Amino acid sequence: MKRFQNSVTPTCKLINNNRLLKGSVLALCFLTAGIHSAHAADSWNGTVLGFEAPGAGMLGDMMGIRPIIEDHGFHYQLGYLSESSYNAGGGYNHDKHLAYIDQFSLTFTQDLEMYTGIPDAAIEGNIVNRNHNDSLTSERTQDPRVGFNDIAQESWGGQSITRLGWLTFGRSFDDRKLHWRIGMMNKNQDFDQIIPCDFQLLSQCGGKSANSMTWYNWNKHYWGTTIQYKLTPELTLKTGIMEQNPDASDRKYAWSGSLKGARGILLPMEAELKTKVNGLPGIYNFGLLYTNSPQTDLSEGKTQSVGATDPEGYRKHSSTWFMYTGFNQQVTQRGDDPNRGMSVSYSLGLGDQRSNAIHYTQAASMRYRGLFDARPDDWLGFGMTYLKMSNHYRQNQENLNTIYQVDDYGNPLYTPLSGHSVNADLYYQVKVRSWLILQPDLQYWYRPGGVKETQDAWVTGLKAIVTF
To answer: Which of 11, 152, 225, 279 is 20–30 Å from 72 (CA)?
Structure first.
């Protein structure tokens, strides 16, 4: 396989001088270089990248019931997750609080190919029950006068609720090169899935496309159809069309199949590469997301520059966009064991700062599986995130302070000014049993919410995962 330095195009070298886009271009250039590899995906093993197959569940074969239903094509994963966070020091509110949330999730696939002969025909579904609407971020870590740009418990969803995450039908064509899916879907089925969600800090959980705020993660569904086409065994191109519904988070849409509330369409496009570098697996992506759904400007008015005092309100934009990219690459292997070693990842999300409160987010992380010989299935992870808030968002905050004639941070009428923030997360994941994982973590928040007046915060956490 050719080395990257021999494969990078002049365009990549030129754009790579841009500081902000440097990480995204790196991933894109790796995509370009990786196309030259020969059948790297044939023996691709993503375990050290964080894509570890679940172990035997706590209930085993359920007295023979599970093997019977699997013989009939029904496969499922039933799991429990809890996340606790404690404000050990600093933050906006120093009063100590232990925040706790949990969820149950059922993800299933009904194989239809065995009955119909249609390649890869299947019905896929996901149901998530979340409990305890208790967020340390909004209650202690960040100033409540500004919106949060990160969350100490990534699975906090804003409500105690049971939702349909997705229910879709899919099948393959063209000798399984083309896969088509349709129904009430979620982006997690097709897009931006190169980095696992193992950290408890939200900004380190998976890719960055959810920061577009035009589609949603995990337990919220929207109508659409998508296609994936394997251009080569390593390179997959993805696209689709989905409804853009800002009301999808409302409780009344938890199980609804209605299109009521839709404001337009989403058009995602992504290139994903599974390849090998020096014989070690890696995965890279580059994606664009466009929507024609009207977006409200965060600062400008319809008839004047200050939307907060414009009699006709804030300016509307007819569309918006979002770009995301990243890579996840294994860099070491422990001895002859392909399931032990270190991986590094990087992800970037870049939004239209006219309407997106977070202009861009950059996250880098390291994972090591099997650091200790006595604990070959444990994980060590460390990640850091840089978040930059939108200039339009900050300008509106300044405008509000001018309107109310306040410049004192301690004044309740004052709107804090958001700039940039840096968050970090360190965890050690212990596999107690094949079905039980305990993961303590330590988070550091620099300028929580991007507000320099808010004291830096230390947060301790504990994640528990049970697979049934």
So the answer is: 225
3-class secondary-structure state, position 395: helix
Under DSSP, the state recorded for 28 is H
pLDDT tops 70 at residue 17 = no
Q: Map tokens 């804030």 to a residue.
A: 314
> Do 465 and 434 meet the contact criterion of CB atoms below 8 Å apart?
no
CA dist 61 and 64 (Å) reads 5
248 forms bridges with which residues in the sheet? none
Place of tokens 């982006």: 187
Close Cβ partners of 75 (under 8 Å, ≥ 6 residues apart): 108, 109, 111
Query: Residue 115: enclosing H or E segment and its boundaries?
Result: helix 113-116
Q: What is the mean pLDDT of residues 109-121?
A: 97
Separation in Å, CA 343 to CA 206, 207, 283: 14, 16, 11
C-alpha–C-alpha distance, residues 13 and 22, integer Å: 10
Torsion, Cα 204 206 220 191, to 10 degrees, reads 150
